[in-house]
């Protein structure tokens, strides 16, 4: 794995970094083909928005692209991670007025997920953890991810690929590392992420792609009963692309789906995307 | 500042540490006098509990004490920070079965807070941020502290020393870096921290000390109207000790208190504590 810290080859950060002390920063996971990030338009837009939400100085786009290319040099298909923190901190939560962000770019070879996850669909479970509600952080891909860690640690069964997370009102929000879409009668529904959850770049891409597919798009609340009645469920993130859900294990049993046509269409469209 | 990482002098941690990636870890702030941590019994108990709550392997107590003493060597009065993370991670939220925690101990000279904060009391404000509710993380001094960062960044006025944080139900939970107590008719009230907030070591010490002061102790919900009617408000943490609140600025104006006798008694008792 190649790592650049503020542009310099290094795999160490200061023990006083606010990213470590408080999780005071953001990150993005990006796939690169021959050094070129996929879906960059959506990745960059999300990164800019997340920086603005946390009053974090945003890095220069050209600089970041150059660092991604440098970290992934010689790797045909790479997974890169960009982490931006509020930099060094002394004691105290207040954001330093003169904060100098730390910029961490790592890249390593990426072989993709097993083909069966796309052909046969994935199995998901309902997580016990209920996501908390914080509108000021909702949507941001920030470094405070203990809820995801706890939720993902609820199961060890390798035949379960993801876990769905619900909020206090009983609405589904997302999965532990992916966003969720539900198709019903030609309408693609996805949870609104204004109180919890992470807005993935692929989620943003998919929302933009929906009109061209002849579907309607709707963001809103989604209860479990609506998931069970859906024609198809999809999970998305920048590395996954689109996984069709084959089985959903919940308190009342297991629901199954067999029509993965929309996921296949979306993945084909995604493959054609620059 | 002296820093030990896993016992070795260093001020750098791996860029792949899960403490940085996810805030997957805990910390404690400890005052040391000639290398001996104050209130260690309460600090250690909280640390053990927090490790258990997050399934984080707990370090050896004697080892940690030796590292604290080594980091603070030659410093008469030091502030130390212990950070424990789940160690190196690869991609993915799941807790590695073979996680080797990272142990960071830093120490630096500590001059204490200005004497007026004890003699004249402090000024606090009501924060706009509403704390989210997550029983699985409540009470733990974990590294997911973006809510504290955002709340503390609501004000820059140096005459305001702390900000009170409320939950969705309108109950006060804590302040941005301290716990809150309210005295009323010989009963000391403090918010229950089972849905949000951080259980400070000094909070635990104070709860243990209350019976000897001839007061009753009650943990429960505390609304703003009850704060305004209190005979005294106190803020506590391991570095502060006990600050009496002189003024509380809220939407309806400013409430003031002048009787700081309980804070003074508690600080005297604290000074006598080993």
UniProtKB/TrEMBL annotation, chains A, B:
Pfam families: Aminotran_4. Its EC number is 4.1.3.38. SUPFAM superfamilies: D-aminoacid aminotransferase-like PLP-dependent enzymes. GO terms for molecular function: 4-amino-4-deoxychorismate lyase activity. Keywords: Folate biosynthesis, Lyase, Pyridoxal phosphate. Pathway: Cofactor biosynthesis; tetrahydrofolate biosynthesis; 4-aminobenzoate from chorismate: step 2/2. It comes from the Bacteria. InterPro entries: Aminodeoxychorismate_lyase_IV, Aminotrans_IV, Aminotransferase-like, BCAT-like_C, BCAT-like_N, Class-IV_PLP-Dep_Aminotrnsfr. It catalyses: 4-amino-4-deoxychorismate = 4-aminobenzoate + pyruvate + H(+). Its cofactor is pyridoxal 5'-phosphate. Homodimer. Belongs to the class-IV pyridoxal-phosphate-dependent aminotransferase family. This is aminodeoxychorismate lyase.
């Amino acid at each position: 794995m190649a790592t650049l810290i503020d542009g310099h080859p290094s795999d160490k950060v200061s023990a006083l970094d606010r990213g470590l002390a408080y999780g005071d920063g953001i990150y993005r996971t990006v796939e690169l083909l021959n050094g070129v990030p996929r879906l960059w338009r959506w990745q960059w837009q999300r990164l800019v928005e997340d920086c603005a939400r946390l009053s974090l100085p945003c890095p220069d786009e050209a600089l970041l692209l150059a660092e991604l290319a440098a970290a992934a040099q010689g790797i045909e298909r790479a997974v890169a991670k960009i982490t931006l923190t509020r930099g060094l901190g002394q004691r105290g939560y207040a954001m330093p007025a003169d904060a100098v962000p730390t910029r961490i770019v790592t890249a390593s070879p990426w072989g993709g997920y097993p083909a069966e996850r796309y052909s046969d669909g994935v199995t998901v479970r309902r997580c016990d953890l209920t996501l908390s509600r914080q509108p000021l952080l909702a949507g941001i891909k920030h470094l405070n991810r203990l809820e995801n860690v706890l939720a993902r640690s609820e199961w060890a069964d390798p035949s379960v690929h993801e876990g769905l997370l619900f909020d206090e009102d009983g609405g589904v929000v997302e999965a532990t590392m992916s966003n969720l879409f539900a198709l019903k009668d030609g309408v693609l529904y996805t949870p609104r992420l204004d109180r919890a959850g992470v807005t993935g770049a692929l989620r943003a891409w998919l929302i933009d792609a929906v009109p061209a597919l002849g579907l309607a798009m709707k963001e809103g609340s989604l209860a479990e009963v609506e998931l069970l009645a859906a024609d198809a469920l999809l999970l998305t993130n920048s590395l996954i692309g689109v996984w069709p859900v084959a089985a959903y294990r919940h308190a009342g049993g297991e629901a199954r789906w067999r029509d993965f046509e929309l996921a296949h269409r979306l993945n084909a469209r995604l493959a054609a995307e620059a």
